[in-house]
Amino acid sequence: MKKTSHKNQRINGEVQRELSRIISREIKDPRIAPMTSVTSVNVTPDLKFCKAFISVLGDEDKAKETLAGLESANGFIRHELARSINLRNTPEITFVLDNSIEYGINMSKKIDEVMGQEGLEMTDTDDSE
Hints:
Elements: H1 6-26, E1 36-43, E2 49-56, H2 60-72, H3 74-84, E3 92-97, H4 100-127
Parallel strand pairs: 2-3
Antiparallel strand pairs: 1-2
Helix pairs in contact: 1-3
């Protein structure tokens, strides 16, 4: 796996910041969930393509609706990105649903449940002595 250059990391960060701003403030599509965030962005070194990882707070149907809304607004998003960031090429954006935040929340809940059960078992064994 090739390590990304410092320049490419800066571009990824700037594109992520601008995509977040455009999605949260500029787009008025009702299909896009208000709690939509851009978790990561990977722009190819030739600046032709961009993969944006999107996290949506809500159920799976809301996430699919949000992706559909983002895909339909892709031209507008790309135009706004070109206006705000001065790059040689404005990349074609592909939106990918990122479930890592939801996965982390679910794992945290499971860990809390297990720890709560262990705490109950520990108090039960202490009482029997």
